[in-house]
Amino acid sequence: EPEVTQTPSHQVTQMGQEVILRCVPISNHLYFYWYRQILGQKVEFLVSFYNNEISEKSEIFDDQFSVERPDGSNFTLKIRSTKLEDSAMYFCASTSWGQNTGELFFGEGSRLTVL
Amino acid sequence: GDSVTQMEGPVTLSEEAFLTINCTYTATGYPSLFWYVQYPGEGLQLLLKATKADDKGSNKGFEATYRKETTSFHLEKGSVQVSDSAVYFCALRGPKAAGNKLTFGGGTRVLVKP
After folding, report:
1. Who among B45, B99, B106 is closest to A42 (CB)?
2. Tell me: the pLDDT tens digits for B3-37?
């Protein structure tokens, strides 16, 4: 069964370092998302991406964040200069065109720890 | 803005016990409502959904009814199994949500003991 895959599963980094989280969405999907969950808090929407551009972003998604689909299969989230408060589980999700049912397919998550 | 509130866990139960996880929402218009589940070591998976008032979503013995009058979508299962141990997330998609954006609750961890 097709699935969304994310790497790394866990990354530890120093404050101020750049981090790239990678996702491989399901191959025929066209909408892509990043969500995050700070420990003990809600799963929060960060950004949605369609047709090679951001379609919506939350107030969390400031200039330190960027997304890219560099090669038609990967979908990356970059944090330019990490802060302690960026420590969270980051989830990638995808869905297919026309499937406006709300069913997003999620990856297992990448845990980011900023020291 | 849209928001989802669900009961905090952890919820610890014995096998075959009845499970209820409360979920209430705030949204304009008529959102679609969802329950997602995250089993240990896995990503979030859609468990069930309801797209209009009084709809009942069901899957794997779980049920939830879309109650517009109480803005609720409580998850229930009559007899839980150890394999139901997971984190359960209530979520909504507003009627004008661009590109399937979901708003989640905080998640409820459920632990079922043999």
Report:
1. B106
2. 999 988 899 999 999 999 999 999 988 899 999 99
Nearest-CA residue of chain B relative to A38? Answer: B106
Size of interface A-B (CB pairs under 8 A): 71
- In this prediction, residue A83 carries a pLDDT of 96
Which amino acid, one-letter code, is at A30?
L
Residue range B31-85, pLDDT digits in tens: 999 999 999 888 889 999 999 999 999 999 999 999 999 999 999 999 999 999 9
Query: Terminal CA-to-CA distance of chain B, rounded, Å?
Result: 41
Distance from CA of B1 to the nearest CA of A (A): 12
Give the separation between CA A62 and CA A87, rounded to whole angstroms: 15
Cβ-nearest to A102 among B41, B93, B105: B93
Averaged pLDDT for residues A5-31: 95
Residue A103 to residues B8, B45, B50: CA-CA distances in angstroms? 24, 9, 11
User: Cα(A8)–Cα(B65) distance, rounded to whole angstroms?
Assistant: 38
Provide the pairing of β-strand A65-68 with A75-79: antiparallel
pLDDT at position A66: 97
Contact A45 B102 (CB under 8 A): yes
